[in-house]
Amino acid sequence: MITKEITIKNRSGLHTRPAAAVVKAASKFKADVKLIRDGFAINAKSIIGVMTLAAEQGSTLSLQIDGADEELAMAEIFNLFDSGFGEI
Amino acid sequence: MALSQKAFNIKLNGIPSSNGIAIGKVYILKKADLIISSRKIKQEEIEKETEKYYNAINKLTSDTNRLISAQQKSTQKGDGEAIKSILESELILVQDEYFKNFVCDSIKKCQTAEFAIVKYLDLQKHFFLKSKDEILRERAIDFDHIKTHLISIIQKQRIAYKLPKEECIVLSKSLTPNEVVQLSKNQVIALMTEIGGLTSHSSILARSFDIPQVIGLKNALQQIANDDLLIVDGFSGEVYINPDKKILAKYRKIILEVKEHKKKLGELLTLPCETKDGTKIKLKANIDILEDINRAEINGAAGVGLVRSENIMMNKPSIPREEEQTGWYKEIADRAYPEDVTIRVFDFGSDKYSVGLPKNETNPALGMRGIRFLLKRKRIFKSQVKAILRASRHKNVRIMLPMIANFEELAKSKMLIDECKAELVAAGVSIDKNIKVGIMIETPASVIMAEEFARFCDFFSIGTNDLTQYSLAADRTNEFVVDIYDPFNPAILKMIDMTVRAAKKHNIEVGVCGELAGHSSAIGILLGLGITEFSVSPGAILEIKRIIREKNTKKCKTLATKVLKCKSSNEVHSLVK
C-alpha cells in the first residue's frame, strides 16, 4: 500500500468534471484507490464518493492505493491532480 | 381597447458570461416543473420500476453519446475536448455503481426510481452547497441538471420546445449543458438565464461555442415576453427590452464595428498566441479606465496583466470607499473570467495625487509613492485590499505591490493582506484565501534582491518604465536627459535577465508590463530572455501577437545572448533592427 499527500490545484476544486477524470483514471487499475480527507475515506472509483469530498482549491487529501498495480496507478492519478486536471 | 403590457425600453443588468452582442427576438424556453411523487410502489411493481430506471440510464447514455459524436464531427464550432469532457462527466455520474445500487435498493424498498434519484442527488448537492468555497457552491447546480435530465427521461417528458425558424435569442430560468450544446446548433444567436454562475458548465460551453450569453438576470422572465425585441450585450451584461431607435442604432453600429474589426484583423484574433515553434505566450491587457476592459475583450486579451487602480479613480475628489472599489474590481474580474486579473494597489505619487501626501517633495519619484504611501496610510491600503479580496471569489484575481525596494515593505504588506483576509473570512465573506500576491520589479534593489524576494512572492511583473528611470537615473520627462532614458540599454536587459532567472529558480511566474512589452523590436529580446507573459495596452495586443507568431524561440535565445554582451544601447538597437 502506498500513500501520498495531494493538494487540489485547479481553482474550481473537485467538481463534476475533475471528479469524473479521477474516476476514469482510477477505474483503469485493479488496485483499490482511496481518497481521504479529514479522516473520511472514499472510494475513488465512485464519482459520487469523490464528489462527496467537495474538495476546494488549496485543500489537501491523501491518496491511498493498494494492489498489484499501485505504483502505476499512483503515478497516473497523482499526475492528474498535480496538473490541476488541465483546467488551472 | 386592450392596453399593451409590453415592456418598453427597459434595461436589465446581468452577469456577462460569454462575449458578443446580439439583437433579435426572444424565445422563452419554458420547462415543466419536476413533479416527484413520494408514493410507494407495490411489491409486484419492483421489477418493472427497476427496468424503467435502467432503460432511462441507457437512453441518457445513448443520447449523450450521440451528442458527443455529432459534436466531434462538426469541428468548426466550439472546443471539442471541453465539450466532450463536460458531457462525459454527466455520463460517468449516472453510471456510478454506488448511485445505481442506492437507487435499486430504494426501489426494492418500494420507492419510485424518481424519488430515489432525487434523494441521492439532493444529498450530493447539499455537500456542495455547504462548502465554504463559492466556486464549489456554484457547481451544485450540476446535480440539478443531471436530475432534470434523468427524470424527464423516466417520466417520458420530452423537453418539448419548438424553436422559431428564424434567428432568436433564448431566455430560460437555467440551461443544462445538454441544452446549450443542442441550442448551439440552431439559429440561436444569444443565451440568457435567470440563474447560473460564471463557472458553471453551461457558461463554459457558451464561451466555447462563442455564443453571447448573459446570466444572473433576476426576474427576467417576469419582464420579458415571447417575441420582445432584445439587445443582449455579452460584453457588459446589459440587456435591453424593446429598446428605442436610438439605442438600437447605437448597438447596430457596435455590432458592425466589432464585425469590421474582426474582419480587419482576420484570423489573427482567433489564432493562438504562440511562437512559430509553439511556445505558448500569455498576452494580457493593461487597464487604466473601466472601459478598457471592452477593448481588451474585443482584442482577445488573455486576461488583465495590470490594472492601474490609481488611474481608475483619477478625477475623483477623494479616495472612493471600499464598496465602490469592490464594484470596479468585481466588474473587471467577472468580465475577464475565466482569465486572470492582476490588480496593482494604488501607486500614488505626489505628482499624481495630492490628498494626504506631502506637498512640494523636491523629488517625487524618489519620495512618498507606491507602497511607501500605502504603508503610511494603512486605512486606505486596507480598504483597497479588502475591496480586491471581495472581488476574488472566483479565484481569478491577483494582488500586485508597486515600488517594492526592501524586504520590510513586502513583509508588512503581506501581513496586512493576511489581516484583511482574516477579517473578511470572520465576517463570512467569500474570498480566495490563496490569492496570489506578487510585486512589481521596478527598483534596482528589487532586481538585485529578486532571488530573496521570490521566496515570498507568487509572481513578478517587470515594470520597465520605472526600472529604466531608476536604473539609469534619468527622468524620461526631462528633455535634457531623455536620450539617456533607454529601456534597450544593456543594463536594463541584464536586469530583466536576472529577474527571470530568479523567478525560474523559485518557480514563480514572471511577466513584463511596462512599455517595453509593447515595443515591437523588444519582443524578440524578451522572448529570448524567457519572458512568457506580456501585458500591453489593449490596442497593441493584436500587433504584438502578430510579431510573437513570427518569432522562433531558438533564434530569440541567440539574440538575447548577443544582446546581453552588448556594451551600449546603440549596439542593441543595431542588433534588433
Helices and strands, with pairings:
The complex is a heterodimer of chains A (88) and B (577).
Chain A: E1 2-7, H1 16-26, E2 32-37, E3 40-43, H2 47-52, E4 60-66, H3 70-82
Helix pairs in contact in A: 1-3
Chain B: E1 10-13, E2 15-18, E3 21-28, H1 46-73, H2 80-95, H3 97-108, H4 113-130, H5 134-139, H6 141-154, E4 168-172, H7 177-184, E5 188-193, H8 201-209, E6 213-215, H9 220-223, E7 229-233, E8 238-241, H10 245-265, E9 282-287, H11 292-298, E10 304-308, H12 309-312, H13 322-336, E11 341-344, H14 371-376, H15 378-390, E12 397-401, H16 407-426, E13 436-441, H17 444-448, H18 450-454, E14 459-462, H19 464-471, H20 490-505, E15 509-512, H21 523-528, E16 533-536, H22 541-550, H23 553-564, H24 569-576
Parallel strand pairs in B: 3-4, 4-5, 5-6, 9-10, 9-16, 10-11, 11-12, 12-13, 13-14, 14-15
Antiparallel strand pairs in B: 1-8, 2-6, 3-7, 7-8
Helix pairs in contact in B: 1-2, 1-3, 1-6, 3-4, 4-6, 7-8, 13-15, 15-16
- Order of strands, main sheet of chain A, comes to 1-4-2-3
Cα-to-Cα separation, first versus last residue of chain A = 30 Å
CATH architectural category of the largest domain in chain B: Alpha-Beta Barrel
Please name the fourth-level CATH homologous superfamily of chain A.
HPr-like
Spans where pLDDT lies below 50 across 5 or more residues of chain A: none
Counting copies of identical and different chains, the oligomeric state is heterodimer
Describe the structure using short key phrases.
heterodimer; A: 88 residues; alpha+beta; Histidine-containing Protein, Chain: A; 4-stranded antiparallel β-sheet; 3 helices; 4 strands; B: 577 residues; Enzyme I, Chain A, domain 2; TIM Barrel; 3 domains; 8-stranded mixed β-sheet; 47% helix; 13% strand; elongated
